[in-house]
């Protein structure tokens, strides 16, 4: 069995590892266009901050380790075409020569590419060495080189999604001033606005010059700076942001060109359509990762590129490629978390607007609760928004903000399990969760939020309905 995988990031390497695990006799070849197999793209902001000392530390596994597992790596190789009739992949090496390889099973894991926003002069400014996208290890190394070479003191970040905020945190940590622009009215566009806006004071307090509702309309470089012209609804006069370097982080789009040319069908957001076995509909061809659609437990088919999802999809694709037809991708609920300075914000499931668009009858309640017993030193408050269905009380989504010490990531994981098992909000209150005064409260903060939802929206005679009735116990 010859398995060829196009792409050497999360999905591609997960597929290779699973295929070799299940069939040690399989010949597994991974073709990737750069020289960095199995590197953590999610770790780039922490390399730029200096918290990760060397870019090479971002490797999940070394090349030697992967090859020791029997995986053949063909790096710095750009795939040019897929022959589905002759079962061959053609690629071009960086040195210019053309080669091809035969496959019995093919896995497309080409990932995603950065979205280039319609900013006048962006392409030219990028060529001048002061404007960067951040998506690959080469990008990270180029940005670090520019920061050091210019002794950069001020950066402009265009975009305030997850990566944009992590970059703001990282550059401030490094001692670089940050001017951050977001076209929408609040940071983190995929988070409930009421919760996302609560994070903005943390950014400002840490020194970020934040401008929401602000478009970058044009960009130019000089010998000593980069200048971004701004348009904002807050003033009739155009503004100007000036920095040593600018970084553009305005989202990604699925890389589908090779798959489409091979005959693959596209689905949500123009991503490659796959079933739960990661089959594309082309005989012997699978796909996984940021280039494919995602099966969401509440939405059905959607596009939500996440590293955790790519690992799982890749694992299924690798199993299917070597004939283990019993493995399927079980779907996601969209769990995400990000640390921004001393705060952590997380979500899982649907926002209220997403739930409404999906045909549910949603209602939400916002709760402020302690992360552990107030009498034990260091207690912090967290803010939780619960969204549930008015008719069935089914939990639909949770958004949460709190201190880095408040175990936000673990509490959102509890909510993710509840969503995955289609719990009602009453059942969420029934969960037997751990308690000790330094770490929690007898009714966990998430359960206090559930109680408030029931009291405000779906009064139940099974549990006390007011948040106050739960706060003072034990």
TrEMBL record:
<dbReference type="Pfam" id="PF07992">
    <property type="entry name" value="Pyr_redox_2"/>
</dbReference>
<feature type="domain" description="Pyridine nucleotide-disulphide oxidoreductase dimerisation">
    <location>
        <begin position="338"/>
        <end position="440"/>
    </location>
</feature>
<keyword id="KW-0560">Oxidoreductase</keyword>
<keyword id="KW-0274">FAD</keyword>
<comment type="similarity">
    <text>Belongs to the class-III pyridine nucleotide-disulfide oxidoreductase family.</text>
</comment>
<dbReference type="Pfam" id="PF02852">
    <property type="entry name" value="Pyr_redox_dim"/>
</dbReference>
<keyword id="KW-0285">Flavoprotein</keyword>
<dbReference type="InterPro" id="IPR036188">
    <property type="entry name" value="FAD/NAD-bd_sf"/>
</dbReference>
<dbReference type="InterPro" id="IPR016156">
    <property type="entry name" value="FAD/NAD-linked_Rdtase_dimer_sf"/>
</dbReference>
<keyword id="KW-0676">Redox-active center</keyword>
<dbReference type="InterPro" id="IPR004099">
    <property type="entry name" value="Pyr_nucl-diS_OxRdtase_dimer"/>
</dbReference>
<protein>
    <submittedName>
        <fullName>FAD-dependent oxidoreductase</fullName>
    </submittedName>
</protein>
<dbReference type="InterPro" id="IPR050260">
    <property type="entry name" value="FAD-bd_OxRdtase"/>
</dbReference>
<dbReference type="InterPro" id="IPR023753">
    <property type="entry name" value="FAD/NAD-binding_dom"/>
</dbReference>
<feature type="domain" description="FAD/NAD(P)-binding">
    <location>
        <begin position="2"/>
        <end position="314"/>
    </location>
</feature>
């Amino acid at each position: 069995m010859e398995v060829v995988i196009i792409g050497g990031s999360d999905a591609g390497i997960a597929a290779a590892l699973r295929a070799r695990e299940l069939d040690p006799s399989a010949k597994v070849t991974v073709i990737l266009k750069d020289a960095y197999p199995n590197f953590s793209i999610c770790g780039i902001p922490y390399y730029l901050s200096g918290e990760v000392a060397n870019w090479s530390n971002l490797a999940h596994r070394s090349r030697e380790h992967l090859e020791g597992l029997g995986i053949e790596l063909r790096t710095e190789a750009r795939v040019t075409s897929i022959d589905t009739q002759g079962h061959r992949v053609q690629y071009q090496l960086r040195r210019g020569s053309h080669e091809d390889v035969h496959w019995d099973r093919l896995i497309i894991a080409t990932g995603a590419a950065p979205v280039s926003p319609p900013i006048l002069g962006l392409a030219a400014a990028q060529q001048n060495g002061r404007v960067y996208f951040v998506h690959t290890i080469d990008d990270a190394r180029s940005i670090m080189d520019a920061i050091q070479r210019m002794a950069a003191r001020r950066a402009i970040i265009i975009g305030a999604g997850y990566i944009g905020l992590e970059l703001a945190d990282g550059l401030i940590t490094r001692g670089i001033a940050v001017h951050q622009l977001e076209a929408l009215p609040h940071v983190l566009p995929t988070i409930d606005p009421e919760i996302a806006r609560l994070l903005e004071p943390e950014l400002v307090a840490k020194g970020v010059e934040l401008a929401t509702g602000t478009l970058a309309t044009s960009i130019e470089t000089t010998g000593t700076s980069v200048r971004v012209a701004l348009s904002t609804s807050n003033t009739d006069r155009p503004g100007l942001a000036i920095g040593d370097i600018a970084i553009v982080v305005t989202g990604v789009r699925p890389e589908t060109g090779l798959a489409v040319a091979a005959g693959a069908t596209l689905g949500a957001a123009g991503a490659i359509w796959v079933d739960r076995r990661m089959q594309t509909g082309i005989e012997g061809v699978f796909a996984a990762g940021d280039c494919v659609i995602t099966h969401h437990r509440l939405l059905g088919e959607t596009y939500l590129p996440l590293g955790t999802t790519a690992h799982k999809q890749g694992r299924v694709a690798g199993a299917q490629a070597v004939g283990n037809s019993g493995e399927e991708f079980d779907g996601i609920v969209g769990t995400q978390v990000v640390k921004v300075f001393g705060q952590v914000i997380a979500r899982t499931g649907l926002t209220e607007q997403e739930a409404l668009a999906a045909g549910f009858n949603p209602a939400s309640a916002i709760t402020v609760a302690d992360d552990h017993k107030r009498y034990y030193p260091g207690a912090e408050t967290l803010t939780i928004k619960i969204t549930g269905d008015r008719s069935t009380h089914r939990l639909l989504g949770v958004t949460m903000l709190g201190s880095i010490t408040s175990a936000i990531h673990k509490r959102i994981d509890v909510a993710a399990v509840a969503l995955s098992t289609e719990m009602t909000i009453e059942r969420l209150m029934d969960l037997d969760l751990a308690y000790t005064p330094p770490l929690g409260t007898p009714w966990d903060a998430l359960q206090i939020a559930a109680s408030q939802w029931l009291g405000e929206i779906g009064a139940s005679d099974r549990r006390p309905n007011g948040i106050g009735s739960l706060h003072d116990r034990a």
